[in-house]
Amino acid sequence: MNEPSFSALDRHAVLTGANDSFPWLSGAMLAMEASEVIRLRLEKFAHRDADSDREACLMVTEKLVAVLQAGAQLLAGATLAMP
């Protein structure tokens, strides 16, 4: 029922086995990986691949879902501060 909520940084730290002695490392690695995803998507758009329109719709849908989830969590009483 009350499942713990983990941030993207928490998930990244657990999945990559990030070292706790460098707390900024997981944030930096997450930022680098996100930049790579953005670069790949923009490259696909620039080349006008066959499925670039579908990729653009998927990207917008993902962002809208994230905004709605964040709004629902705030309405449910979540705070902006990270635990």
Question: Could you walk me through the main structural features you see in this protein, from its secondary elements to its overall organization?
Answer:
The chain has 83 residues and is mainly α. The protein has one domain (8-75). Helices cover 70% and strands 0% of the residues. It is built from three helices and no strands. Helix 1 (8-16) crosses helix 2 and helix 2 runs antiparallel to helix 3. The chain is flat, with a radius of gyration of 16 Å. The two termini are 19 Å apart. The model has no long low-confidence stretch (mean pLDDT 79).
Q: Please give the number of β-strands.
A: 0
Series of secondary-structure elements, N-terminal to C-terminal: HHH
Rg to the nearest angstrom?
Answer: 16 Å
Number of domains: 1
Mean pLDDT: 79
Name the structural class.
Answer: mainly alpha
Q: What's the number of helices?
A: 3
What is the CA–CA distance across the termini? 19 Å
Largest β sheet strand count, sense and barrel closure = none
What level of helicity do the residues show? 55-70%
The coarse overall form would be flat
Strand-residue proportion? under 5%
Low-pLDDT parts are none
Question: How would you summarize what this structure contains?
Answer:
The chain has 83 residues and is mainly alpha-helical. The chain contains 3 helices and no strands.
List keywords for this structure.
83 residues, 3 helices, flat, mainly alpha
